[in-house]
Amino acid sequence: MNFAKYISVIAVSMLKFMGGPLTGLAIQLSWVETAICSVVGMMATVVLIVFAGDFVSKIFQKKKPKKFTRLTRFGVKIRKQFGLSGIALLTPILFTPPLGAALSVAFRYEKKAIIINMLISAMAWALAQTLFFYFAKDLIFK
C-alpha cells in the first residue's frame, strides 16, 4: 500500500490544490488515487476551517478597522456576483483551500452549504486537473 504517497498528496492538497495532482504524478500514483487524495486534502482543510473558524476568528479578532486588500475586494466581488458557488468554484484554482474556506466562513454562509459546495468543486477540479496533468505528460514525453 502507498500510504506515505497518499499522505504526501493529501498534505500538499491541503495547502495548494494544484500541487496535489502534480505531486501524485511525480510519485507515480494512478490518476484515480491522485484525484481522490487531492479531494481528501482540500476537504480536510475546509472542514477544519469551517468548524474551527468561529474559534479562530475570536482569538485573532482585532479592534482596528479592517483594511480591504486587493484579494478581499476580489472575494467580495465574487460573492456579490456568484455567491458561495463562485467562491467554491474558484477555491481550488485561485484562492487555495484555506483562503476559500476562510472567505466562506467570513461571509457567514451555512457550514453545511460550504462543505457541500466545496466538495462538489473539489471533485470537479480534481478530476479535471488530474486528467489534464496525466494525459499532458503522456503527450509531452512520448
Question: Can you tell me about this structure?
Answer:
The chain has 142 residues and is mainly α. Helix content is 82%, strand content 0%. It has six helices and no strands. The protein has helices spanning 3-15, 19-26, 31-60, 70-95, 97-106, 111-140. The protein is globular.
Summed up:
By secondary structure, the chain is mainly alpha-helical.
- Whole-Å distance between the termini? 29 Å
- Mean pLDDT, as a whole number? 88
The main pleated sheet reads as: none
Strand percentage? under 5%
Class by helix and strand content? Answer: mainly alpha
Q: How do the SSEs run, as a string of H and E?
A: HHHHHH
- Low-pLDDT stretches are none
Per DSSP E runs of 2 or more residues, the count of β-strands stands at: 0
Q: Figure out the total of helices.
A: 6
Features:
142 residues, mainly alpha, 6 helices, globular
What topology emerges from the helices and strands here?
Layout: H1 3-15, H2 19-26, H3 31-60, H4 70-95, H5 97-106, H6 111-140
Helix pairs in contact: 1-2, 1-3, 2-3, 2-6, 3-5, 3-6, 4-5, 4-6
